[in-house]
Design goal:
Blueprint: H1 2-11, E1 26-30, E2 35-38, H2 54-68, E3 76-80, H3 86-98, E4 104-108, H4 117-125, E5 130-135, H5 146-154, E6 165-171, H6 179-188, H7 192-204, E7 208-212, H8 217-231, H9 237-251, H10 256-270
Parallel strand pairs: 1-4, 3-6, 3-7, 4-5, 5-6
Antiparallel strand pairs: 1-2
Length: 277
């Protein structure tokens, strides 16, 4: 009987008690069992250090300020080149807006936990705080049904999305799935247009599409100089340029992530402690 009772509790768990949302400004959602874990210190960099994303920054910042003030705001999809600061922008904007709107919280949700998003929304719905639901590196593969759970956030179903919740997601793909997968669906379906409509239309449900594109060399060097000035790492421009260009050549890429990785190496050689990123 004890084993049967335990099994029934796992199948129909006791409703999760509301956590103390005043314990932190950031939380991570975990399942099995469901819980919101507070994050005492978020890994992020200051908003002014994000270079080359001015349009996306200004648009998302305005949207977030509207949301924090209790005004209408859109869900946002940040898509584009890898390592160009999509995730960093979301975290930096939350910190910036939270400074003037202390009830703003950010909750990170893993893609694998999307099927549980309904339970999370019910937990957040009755809270007095306002929540940015953050899903990083979002994408879907063949026969991946997790995207259906995401519609609970974007469309809200019969209950509607809670007024105190907005979704910010990042992805390398504008339509959240590989192009070859879209083409395969079109080529093998009886009705090609309907075959991909359900999945492709998911990205259309985001009110804001913010594109991130590869940076040029001057932007790359400006990023590094900004990090050096912010953290007090001294290096002359000629040496910085020579080392940074060599670093990006060995990596075969140029992006904000590569700029930060070079700066971390430089700071370590200079004996300067660095936090964030």
């Amino acid at each position: 009987m004890d084993r049967i009772a335990a099994a029934l509790e796992r199948m129909s768990p006791v409703p999760l008690a509301a956590p103390d949302f005043d314990a932190a400004s950031a939380f991570v959602w975990h399942t099995d069992p469901d819980r919101l874990m507070p994050v005492p210190q978020v890994a992020r960099i200051d908003l002014p250090l994000l270079v080359g994303v001015d349009r996306a920054r200004d648009t998302l910042l305005a949207n977030t300020r509207q949301f924090a003030a209790g005004l209408p705001a859109n869900n946002a999809l940040l898509w584009g080149a890898r390592g160009m600061g999509k995730s960093s922008l979301v975290k930096a904007i939350h910190a910036d807006v939270h400074a003037s709107h202390e009830d703003l919280r950010i909750v990170e949700l893993q893609r694998e936990d999307l099927p549980s998003v309904g339970r999370l929304l019910n937990l957040l719905r009755g809270a007095s705080q306002r929540f940015i639901l953050f899903c990083d590196d979002l994408s879907f593969g063949h026969d991946d049904a997790h995207y259906k759970s995401l519609k609970a956030v974007l469309d809200g179903g019969i209950e509607g999305r809670p007024d105190n919740v907005v979704l910010y997601a990042t992805s390398n793909r504008r339509h959240l799935m590989p192009r070859d997968m879209i083409e395969n669906e079109r080529g093998s379906a009886i009705n090609p247009s309907e075959a991909v409509e359900e999945k492709v239309s998911l990205s259309d449900r985001f009110g804001l599409w913010l594109g991130f594109h590869p940076c040029d060399q001057e932007q790359y060097l400006t990023m590094i100089r900004g990090y050096c000035d912010a953290f007090g790492v001294e290096i002359d421009n000629e040496t910085l340029r020579a080392e940074a260009v060599e670093w990006q050549a060995t990596r075969g890429a140029r992006s904000g992530r590569v700029a930060w990785q070079y700066f971390v190496d430089l700071a370590g050689r200079k004996g300067v402690k660095v936090s964030g990123g």
